[in-house]
Design brief:
The protein has helices at residues 77-87, 93-109, 127-139, 161-171, 186-203, 221-231, 251-264, 272-278, 294-299, 323-334, 339-348, 351-357, 380-386; strands at 2-9, 18-23, 26-31, 38-43, 49-50, 53-58, 112-120, 144-150, 175-176, 207-211, 238-242, 267-269, 372-375, 390-395, 398-402, 408-409, 418-419. It is α/β, with parallel strands linked by helices and 430 residues long. It folds into 2 domains: 2-51 and 363-424, Roll (Urease, subunit C, domain 1); 53-357, Metal-dependent hydrolases (TIM Barrel), CATH 3.20.20.140. A 4-stranded mixed sheet has the order 3-2-1-4, with no helix packed on it. Strands 5-13-14-15 form a 4-stranded antiparallel sheet, with no helix packed on it. GO terms for molecular function: cytosine deaminase activity; isoguanine deaminase activity; metal ion binding.
């Protein structure tokens, strides 16, 4: 007897009519027609069952702080940093914890079960670190939270940032972060990349660095990050986040840069929502999109995961906690409109990001954790198009969140009484 069986599921790889059996929080079988009894049976009714959504780039210390201490009137990255610099010295551990916990509640309802959050270590009080370590412990039963020691004001530029980052790692933060393009000079930026990679190598930790989040095509710290990844033997443990300067670089230079990134084993984490919002602010028209070269990276086999980055904070006044919003924006901004493209972008908010974060037991295979999301959609392409309701969110074989199916009542003579959005896609195309 199984603890749970999901019947008649469609899987992201296209398999239909699959039953998924769960025992002791792990997937015990995936096959059609499982007849054994189960403590709970869920009829997927042919709809998509996905592994959990995974957010590899977020700022949980700032989330839900929109309007504190005031709004970002210019909408720029630099004003957002300045606003956070005003809020950071007066924020308390209690309010940081409360906002982060509220965000985690929202994320779980969207099927997100793993988040990598950058934690600002620029304030030597490290109240942000204390708060997020508490949140990590509290959400552990239902959400895996990884923390990055992030010197928001610059590793060399920020006062006491070097010592504060070291203390944050000693306190239990998981990953070494950085922001080389915010240092005072290009030389300082390159030196910070080297210093931070050295720390990661000495401590045996991964690296996840904000890199070249700018329109400046001469901001080329990702080249240095790739080189230092190889130098310190960090292959498979380094991610470069944002990389938006690449949208302004000439193709000849990029033809050298992308093979270097691929050679280094780095992963990349674009953040389509925030990148589209913050970049190109000095342009009139033509106006740059502000997103790195996702299709070309995927073609070269560079691991690409897509992050949410911000939800209602000094940098981004929007956001729902839904990674399908992120993938939806990526479809438009990258013009990746084919069914295969959308499947690749669905992977970028699920399996790719899980690999980047090194999640153990993730996936829809026998032996994996029984962590799943039942969506009101028939396949990954439709899920990105509709951003549908999460009918069931399952953690270790237990339903932790659920949403009623979306449908509308129609009162028009001679027309159907109920409208279900997912029923309107052509059967042979998307």
């Amino acid at each position: 007897m199984f603890d749970l069986v999901l019947r008649n599921a469609t899987l992201p790889d296209g398999r239909q009519g699959q039953d998924i059996a769960v025992t002791k929080g792990r997937i015990a079988a995936i096959q059609p027609g499982i007849t054994a009894e189960a403590g709970q049976v869920i009829d997927a009714a042919g709809q998509l069952v996905s592994p959990p959504f995974v957010d590899p780039h977020f700022h949980m210390d700032a989330t839900l702080s929109l309007g504190l201490p005031r709004m970002n009137l210019s909408g720029t990255l630099l004003e957002g940093i300045a606003l956070w610099g005003e809020l950071r010295p007066i924020v308390t551990r209690e309010e940081l914890v409360e906002r982060a916990m509220r965000y985690c509640d929202l994320a779980v309802t969207k099927g997100v079960m793993a988040v990598r959050s950058h934690v600002d270590v620029s304030d030597p009080r490290l109240v942000t670190v204390e708060a997020l370590l508490e949140v990590r412990e509290r959400v552990a039963p239902y959400l895996e939270l990884q923390l990055v020691a992030f010197p928001q004001d610059g590793y060399f530029r920020g006062p006491d940032a070097e010592e504060a980052l070291s203390r944050a790692l000693d306190m239990g933060v998981d990953i070494v972060g950085g922001i080389p393009h915010f240092e005072r000079t290009m030389e300082d930026g390159a030196a910070s990349v080297e210093a931070l990679c050295r720390i990661a190598a000495d401590r045996g930790l991964p690296v996840d660095m904000h890199c070249d989040e700018t329109d400046d095509p001469l901001s080329r710290h990702v080249e240095t990050l790739a080189a230092q990844t190889v130098r310190f033997g960090l292959q498979g443990r380094v991610a470069g986040s944002h990389l938006t300067s690449m949208h302004s670089m000439d193709n000849y230079y990029v033809s050298k840069l992308l093979p270097l990134i691929a050679e280094s084993g780095m992963a990349v984490i674009p953040n389509p929502l925030i990148n589209m919002m913050l970049q190109g602010r000095h342009d009139t028209y033509p106006k740059r999109r502000g997103l790195t070269r996702i299709p070309q990276m995927m073609e070269m086999g560079i691991p690409v995961g897509l992050g949410q980055d911000c939800v209602m904070d000094p940098w981004y006044s929007m956001g729902t906690g839904d990674l399908l919003d992120v993938a939806h924006m990526a479809v438009h901004a990258t013009q990746m409109g084919s069914v295969a493209d959308k499947r690749a972008l669905f992977d970028a908010v699920t399996v790719n990001s899980a690999r980047i974060m090194g999640l153990e037991g993730y996936g829809l295979e026998v032996g994996c954790h029984a962590d799943m999301v039942l969506l009101q959609a028939r396949d990954p392409a439709e899920a990105i198009r509709l951003r549908p309701n999460r009918l069931k969110v399952i953690r270790r074989g237990r339903v932790v969140a659920e949403t009623a199916p979306e449908q509308s009542r129609l009162s028009l003579e001679g027309r159907p009484p109920l409208i279900v959005p997912a029923a309107y896609a052509p059967r042979q195309a998307d």
